[in-house]
Design a protein that fits this description.
The structure holds two protein chains of two kinds. By secondary structure, chain A is of the alpha/beta class. Chain A has 14 helices and twelve strands. The relative contact order of chain B is 0.09. Classes of the chains: A alpha/beta, B mainly beta.
């Protein structure tokens, strides 16, 4: 089964009457999200705004977002995959064991109520955060929720969307997808794109020490990645393009200061629902844009002989 | 199962471990069998994007043959034995990712450890790793519907996550403990876990059999069916005995608890968990 069941935030605003946040804390991490796109807005098919919508929050602890929710479901840590799999069974009317359900931290009654609401709604949406995608199970937790959303379409319209983190990560995914066919974890070393997260994804490459150079663009892995990955970035020639000096810049061989996108550089940014938005820079700055630096590096590399001895081209995509 | 014992042998000795992964899918009996010594030396391997000769990394001994021996730490050498259909490869040391991927026949033996994707989407043949293996053993490649569809993988040590993901047929036996998601989305075949597993074993399985000799934590979407010693296990036990793994199947020593699931699919897979007689009911 493949494909992503998604929509734009405009559709959420105009149609969604059941909004489920899973493992995310939008009240603190995406402060304008509620008011601009989801629960607070009045929409074409939800004319009374907040009154027409039901919001459910699923998380391992009661975050400030719980205040905004109609229903708060507190699951035990690392039980998200189990709960979503139980929901997949329950929407198909499969029998489930009450004692087994209780181990997830939720009662059978709570899950039955959620399933009833999911089936009764006109347009349901899952928003999932790093509490789901970055805890034990990782990509399979996200896969579980995406599969549940796909399967819910046997009953009603249902979509799932990740709450993306800092920076323009959605844009990175979108561009790689339309240029290579894959969103991340791509190797071009054989001249054609190959996709294998775990083998070609940045953290795994760095932890195994499988790359001998790194170009970091618009990211700060020195602050976020696990220590063995950072150690490898210190060992190899690392080049950082960033408007400011980051943790990664301090361990890099080369730091090139570039213009801040949206402030002194224009371009296109992708919103979390993959809608491209143009950026108009209000200021002029002394620094070149990321694009200009990359273009000039590329031109300089193209002038060189095919490749130089001792420079092998496994490049970690930032 | 084992290839005909021809006397010729090709011995590859790693000169120096490559500093980035070396993709060497040419190291396969099907490629080597008809080649002269010089032709084997001139085969193309990929270091990053650079195309280099095999003899830049390996000392090659003997003419090309169906029996290949590799010496040295080949932990960064990927795709050994890819799509092989016959012959044998023996790795004295470690092997890199994708060992025996897509293989259809022949045998691979590793004395050290192997990495991820051992026997990825293999269709037949035999792989034995004395040490540990990584994750995604016998699994389907990303975006593919079916994992291994035949053959045997034996691992002496531990293994990683998602082993046997989407496998359809074939046998996997793991001596050590395995991590999460063993038999994920399994569609058939058999996985034997001699030392149990961590979480989520058999998640989303549709069919197939997972046998664990140690108690394991099950998904809430599995239900207990019965306790017994399945008749078919005696045949399995006899076969696995010849491969060095002993499977208990005598009612005097205990019995198997049978769990079925995963009801989220809904699936008809089974998980058999061995219960020694002493720890449960007195006999």
């Amino acid at each position: 089964m493949g494909g992503k069941v998604s929509c734009t935030l405009g559709e959420v605003k105009n149609r969604a009457d059941l909004i489920i946040y899973w493992g995310g804390n939008p009240a603190e991490c995406h402060p304008r999200h509620f008011t601009k796109y989801t629960i607070m807005q009045k929409g074409k098919y939800v004319p009374n705004g907040r009154k027409d919508r039901t919001m459910v929050l699923v998380d391992i602890r009661e975050t400030p977002s719980a205040k905004a929710a109609d229903i708060f479901l507190q699951v035990r840590p690392t039980k998200d995959f189990e709960v979503i799999t139980l929901l997949r069974a329950m929407i198909k009317d499969q029998p489930v064991d009450e004692a087994a359900v209780a181990e997830t931290g939720l009662s059978l009654e709570q899950l039955r109520d959620l399933v009833a609401r999911m089936k009764a709604c006109k347009f349901g949406v899952f928003f999932f955060g790093m509490g789901l995608s970055m805890t034990r199970g990782k990509h399979m937790n996200s896969a579980a929720l995406l599969t549940l959303a796909a399967e819910m379409n046997a009953f009603t319209k249902f979509v799932a969307m990740p709450m993306r983190g800092h920076g323009n990560v959605t844009g990175g995914d979108v561009i790689l997808r339309y240029t290579t066919g894959y969103p991340f974890g791509i190797s071009l070393s054989r001249g054609y794109p190959r996709f294998n997260p775990g083998e070609f994804s940045t953290i795994d490459l760095l932890i195994r020490g499988d790359c001998d150079a790194a170009l970091i663009l618009g990211a700060d892995p020195g602050a976020t990645m696990p220590q063995p990955a950072i150690e490898h970035l210190k060992r190899i020639p690392t080049i950082v393009l960033d408007p400011k000096v980051t943790h990664t810049s301090r361990l890099a061989r080369v730091h090139i200061t570039t213009a801040a996108t949206g402030i002194s550089a224009g371009g296109t940014v992708y919103r979390m629902d993959e809608i491209p938005l143009p950026l108009r820079p209000p200021l002029k700055g002394p620094y070149p844009t990321d694009e200009e630096v990359i273009r000039r590096i590329r031109e300089a590399v193209a002038k060189k002989a095919d490749w130089m001895p001792g420079m092998n081209g496994v490049v970690a995509a930032a | 199962m084992h290839a005909s014992q021809s006397m010729t042998k090709t011995i590859l000795t790693l000169k120096k471990a490559p500093h980035v992964p070396l993709e060497a899918e040419v190291i396969s009996p099907d490629v080597f069998s008809t080649l002269t010594h010089d032709a084997v030396c001139g085969l193309t391997v990929f270091l990053g994007k650079r195309q280099l000769r095999l003899d830049e990394f390996f000392d090659v001994e003997g003419p090309g043959s169906e029996n290949i021996e590799i010496h040295g730490d080949a932990a960064r050498v990927k795709w050994i034995g890819k799509t092989m259909t016959r012959g044998s490869i023996k790795v004295h040391g470690n092997a890199g990712m994708h060992l025996g991927a897509y293989m259809k026949g022949g045998s691979i033996e590793v004395t050290g450890n192997a990495s991820d994707w051992v026997g990825g989407e293999m269709k037949g043949g035999f792989i034995r790793v004395a040490g540990d293996a990584g994750g995604l053993l016998g699994a389907a490649y990303r975006g593919s519907v079916t994992g291994m569809s035949g053959g045997t993988i034996l691992i002496g040590g531990i293994a990683g996550t998602e082993l046997g993901m989407r496998m359809k047929r074939g046998t996997i036996v793991i001596g050590g403990a395995v991590r999460d998601f063993a038999g994920l989305q399994m569609k058939g075949g058999t996985i034997v876990l001699m030392s149990g597993a961590e979480l989520r074993t058999g998640a989303w399985m549709a069919r197939g059999t997972i046998i664990s000799l140690k108690p394991i934590k099950l998904m809430p979407t599995f239900g207990q069916a019965c306790t017994y010693v399945p008749t078919f296990l005696q045949m399995y036990a006899r076969h696995l005995n010849t491969l060095g793994f002993s499977l208990p199947c005598d009612l005097k020593n205990g019995f198997y608890q049978r769990f079925t699931g995963d009801s989220s699919v809904p699936g008809k897979g089974e998980i058999l968990v061995w219960q020694p007689a002493s720890s449960s009911r007195g006999s």
